Amino acid sequence: MAMTKEQIIADIESGATALGIEYGSTRIKAVLVASDSEPIAIGAFDWENSLVDGYWTYSDEEIFAGLAAAYASMKADVAEKYGVTLKKVGALGISAMMHGYLPFDAEGNPLVPFRTWRNTTTTQAAHELSDLFAFHTPERWSVSHIYQAVLNGEEHVDKIDFFTTLAGYAHWKLTGEKVLSIGDASGMFPIDSETHDYDAAMVAKFDELVASKGVAWKVEDLLPKIMVAGECAGHLTAEGARLLDPDGDLEPGCPVCPPEGDAGTGMIATNSIAPRTGNVSAGTSVFSNIVLEHGLKDATIPEIDLVTTPVGDPVAMVHCNNCTSDINGWVNLLCDFASLMGADVNKGEAFTKLFTAALDGDKDAGGLVSIPFISGETVMGVQTGYPMVLRGQNSTFSIANFMRMNIMAAFGALAAGNEALRAEDVKIDKLYGHGGIFKTPVVAQSLLAAALEAPVTVMATAGEGGAWGQAVAAAYMAWREDGESLADYLNNKVFADMEGTTIEPDPADVEGYRAFLATFKKANEAEKAAERAFA
User: Fold this and answer.
1) What's the Cα-to-Cα distance from 233 to each of 81, 227, 485, rounded to whole Å?
2) I need a labelling partner for 29 at 20 to 30 A (CA). Which of 43, 73, 177, 523 fits?
3) Which of these, 34, 200, 76, lies nearest to 133 by C-alpha position?
4) Cα separation of 308 and 287, whole Å?
5) What sign does the CA torsion over 316, 528, 283, 409 have?
6) 31, 60 in Cβ contact below 8 A?
């Protein structure tokens, strides 16, 4: 039964709330939940990465100004809905897009601007480490970034005292603790799921490798301490409280859960942390996570990243750098056209109508295909993105087919990557989708089911995404019973009565998507040719 407004106000005033804040690639989102884990207030701050000196980055100023702005937006939502000023929360959690590179010196000063997951500048390092470890090491992982800096002979390398992810950085500034959730840490350096620590054999190999390059430090001394879901990873300091709430209303002292990556919060937000469950998180990037019953036969498959759940179980991730950015660009263009013609268009309504139109398109998008790569796409072998639309002479160029093409293409690299999982005979009982692309009912959900040839469930909270997932992680840390596992907490206290809709893959949609994917792969060769032409 839903809580009454009076019960929610009581939770807010007593601090029986949990707050999750997630740094997405285009939005920093804050979600406050009451004691029943239902969202009661939401705030957001829009931001965009910048290409500076050849690296995709966000400035230090943006990172913390955006954090405060998202919190202020949520705080204002509390005041508007409930007539009270938010002064304390019972638990807090920070999450962010995974991977990337944030190195610091012994005084805590950043040594280089944040290099995000989106950078594809670490190809040599990733290939060498994959060979060294006999383990696929993606370009976006933090270990690839730090080793590439070594290979490049970058001046800052000898000064590194600590490096972390964006979530780890924000958590450190809020609590003073240099820690990470095991899920986020698994995007920095390979993890041993048995020991819940960095893989010791690979650590030794890496130390020996960088020592041969004249590096004095050992990587285990630079990495954050690993923690698992349910543990307390520090408390909000007075300085941290002022960072979040410059107005000075927020009280320090609340416990903070381990900082998590967006893969882990997606798993929590979709209740997909048990073996044979999986989720797809779709935003600027898109990735699928399938929790494995056992390790893969081949740990070197380039399309599959081996990460972990927030409690340390192995996960097969297919991560693609591009998903909705190109769709957003086209919808913005169409809205500009409408404005030019004198029509007052609500962008949210435009998205809904354009997505819905895709259901009327041909199953294979009428012979249209797009490559929506704003940035490089490792799964497809693309180093630099050049978005393009291609169509055959006999294609049916309609708005329905155009929108169906865009949505199908958003999942194209993901579908290509997941073919490797099917070859490994990985079993999936449940697959959940979350992210803004699923806000319009049925459309993206049905096309994703066709792309991955598996039933897809979307829960009522799908649009809230990882910030809500991290709020739930904070609530689990604060309110779990002794011995209560995260899986049990989610099943019994969060998702027991939650509504969701499941769509099975339609055979005609699957056939159409297979035809589209074949064309998509051919078009990718044109993408590579464009890359060579513009180089």
Assistant:
1) 31, 7, 18
2) 177
3) 200
4) 14
5) negative
6) no
Instruction: Print burial letters for 436-474: b (CB count within 10 Å at least 16), e (below 16).
Output: bbbebeebbbbbbbbbbbbbbbbbebbebbbbbbbbbbb
Nearest to 175 by CA among 241, 260, 123: 241
Asked if 303 and 416 touch (Cβ cutoff 8 Å), the reply is yes
Find, among 99, 218, 106, the residue nearest to 162 by Cα. 106
**Phi, psi (5° rounding) for residue 101?**
-145, 115
Which segments of the chain have a pLDDT < 50?
none
Q: Tell me how far apart the alpha carbons of residues 317 and 298 are, in angstroms, rounded to a whole number.
A: 14
Closest C-alpha among 263, 198, 252 to residue 224: 198
CA-derived radius of gyration, the chain? 22
DSSP 292: -
Indicate the residue type of 389.
V
What the block records as the tokens of 451 is: 């792309």
The kind and range of the H/E element at 215 are: none
In terms of pTM, does the model score above 0.85? no
Q: Are 311 and 228 in contact (CB under 8 A)?
A: yes
For residues 67 and 63, give the distance between their C-alpha atoms in angstroms, rounded to a whole number. Answer: 6
pLDDT of residue 464: 62
Residues recorded for the chain: 535
Cβ burial, residue 31 (10 Å; 0-12/13-18/19+): buried
Q: Which residues share a beta bridge with 458?
A: 433, 501
pLDDT at 408: 98
* Axis-axis angle for helices 200-211, 123-133 (nearest 10): 130
Cα–Cα distance for residue pair 506/484, rounded to 1 Å:
39
Longest CA span, the chain? 66
CA–CA separation, 219 and 198 (whole Å): 10
Residue type, 150: V
Letter string b/e over residues 66-93, b meaning 16 or more CB atoms within 10 A of that residue's CB: bbbbbbbbbbebbeeebeeebebbbbbb
pLDDT digits (tens, 9 = 90+) for 61-74: 999 999 999 999 99
| Side chain identity at residue 364, one-letter code | D
CB atoms within 10 A of CB 52: 13
Class of residue 519 by CB neighbours under 10 A (exposed 0-12, middle 13-18, buried 19+): buried
